[in-house]
C-alpha cells in the first residue's frame, strides 16, 4: 500500500470498527489498532493505552484494549445511527453519530456522540492509532439509573464487571468522566463561534478562518466541547479544547 492511505482506505478503517462491534468479532476489532494506540471512551475518563507495559498482565501489548472490549462491548448490543456524512481530513476521520447500547434485562441507552479516529501506518497498512469518543456520561447514567428490577440488575452487573476487569481505579476514573467542562465550557464555545460570525479576528484565527453557523448537538466531555454545525453551507464538526481554570478555549479544530 502507498505511504498515504486514500480517503476510501481511511473510511473503511473507521467503519470497520462498528461493524466488528455489531457482530461481536473481538479478534477483528483488536486487529484494527496500531501496536501503540490510545482509546478515550469517554473523553475525560481514563484512557486505554496499548503497546506499553501493562501492570495487570505483566506484558507489553494489547491487553488493556482486550479488557476494554470485555468490559464495555462484549456484554452489550451496540448499534450506530449515522447522523451526517463522515469527514476525512488528513489521517483523521470524524463521525457524527448517536450510539444505542442495549444492555441486559432489556435496558436501552442512547448517547449522541462525535467520534474522532486518528490513523497511522503499521508495516505500510492503515491502523487506528487513537479513538476519541466525545459523549456525555451523566445523561447516559440517567437512562440506566432507576429502582426497577431491570435497572438494578443492570447496575449491579455493570459494577461487578468493571471492578473485576478495570479495578477500583478504573471504575472510579470512569465515573469522574462526568466532571467535564459542562455548561460553562459550552457557553464559552458558543461565544467563540458568535465572535467569529461577527468578524472578530482572534476568534476567526482560533477557528482556522471558518465561520460556523447552525450550531447543534453540543457535547461537553473532559476538557473538550464538540459541536455539529455548518461552514459555507456544508456539514462541519467543531472540536474545541478549554483551559479548565479559566474556561477559555485554547485550541480548536474544525473538520468539514
Mean pLDDT: 91
State the distance separating the first and last CA atoms: 26 Å
How many strands?
13
Radius of gyration: 19 Å
The SS-based structural class is alpha+beta
Identify the CATH architecture of the largest domain.
Answer: Roll
Indicate the CATH topology of the largest domain: Nuclear Transport Factor 2, Chain: A
Q: Looking at the structure, what is the overall shape?
A: globular
Count, helices: 7
| Uncertain ranges | none
How many individual domains? 2
What is the CATH class of the largest domain?
Answer: Alpha Beta
Major sheet: size, sense and barrel closure?
Answer: 7 strands, mixed
H-E string: HHEEEEHEEEEEHHHHEEEE
Helix content: 25-40%
Residues in β-strands, percent: 35-45%
Organism: Rhodococcus maanshanensis
Protein name: SnoaL-like domain-containing protein
Features:
single chain; 256 residues; alpha+beta; Nuclear Transport Factor 2, Chain: A; 2 domains; four-stranded antiparallel beta sheet; 7 helices; 13 strands; globular
Structure description:
The longest helix has 28 residues. The protein has seven helices and 13 strands. The chain folds into two domains: 170 residues, Nuclear Transport Factor 2, Chain: A (Roll), CATH 3.10.450.50; 74 residues, Nuclear Transport Factor 2, Chain: A, CATH 3.10.450.50. Strands 1, 2, 5, 6, 7, 8 and 9 form a seven-stranded mixed β-sheet that branches. A four-stranded antiparallel β-sheet has the order 10-11-12-13. It has 256 residues and is of the alpha+beta class.
Amino acid at each position: 500500500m502507498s505511504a498515504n492511505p486514500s480517503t476510501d482506505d481511511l473510511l473503511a478503517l473507521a467503519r470497520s470498527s462498528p461493524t466488528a462491534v455489531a457482530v461481536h468479532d473481538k479478534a477483528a476489532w483488536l486487529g484494527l489498532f496500531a501496536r501503540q494506540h490510545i482509546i478515550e471512551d469517554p473523553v475525560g475518563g481514563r484512557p486505554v493505552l496499548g503497546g506499553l507495559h501493562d501492570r495487570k498482565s505483566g506484558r507489553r501489548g494489547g491487553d488493556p484494549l482486550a479488557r476494554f472490549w470485555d468490559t464495555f462491548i462484549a456484554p452489550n448490543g451496540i448499534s450506530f445511527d449515522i447522523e451526517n456524512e463522515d469527514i476525512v481530513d488528513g489521517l483523521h476521520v470524524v463521525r457524527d453519530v448517536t450510539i444505542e447500547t442495549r444492555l441486559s434485562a432489556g435496558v436501552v441507552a442512547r448517547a449522541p456522540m462525535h467520534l474522532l479516529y486518528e490513523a497511522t501506518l503499521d508495516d505500510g497498512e492503515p491502523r487506528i492509532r487513537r479513538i476519541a469518543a466525545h459523549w456525555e456520561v451523566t445523561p447516559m447514567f440517567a437512562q440506566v439509573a432507576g429502582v426497577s428490577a431491570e435497572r438494578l440488575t443492570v447496575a449491579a452487573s455493570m459494577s461487578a464487571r468493571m471492578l473485576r476487569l478495570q479495578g477500583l481505579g478504573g471504575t472510579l476514573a470512569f465515573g469522574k468522566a462526568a466532571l467535564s467542562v459542562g455548561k460553562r465550557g459550552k457557553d464559552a464555545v458558543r461565544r467563540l463561534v458568535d465572535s467569529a460570525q461577527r468578524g472578530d479576528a482572534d476568534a476567526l484565527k482560533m477557528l482556522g478562518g471558518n465561520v460556523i453557523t447552525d450550531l447543534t448537538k453540543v457535547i461537553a466531555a473532559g476538557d473538550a466541547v464538540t459541536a455539529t454545525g455548518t461552514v459555507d453551507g456544508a456539514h462541519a464538526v467543531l472540536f474545541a479544547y478549554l483551559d479548565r481554570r479559566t474556561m477559555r478555549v485554547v485550541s480548536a479544530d474544525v473538520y468539514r
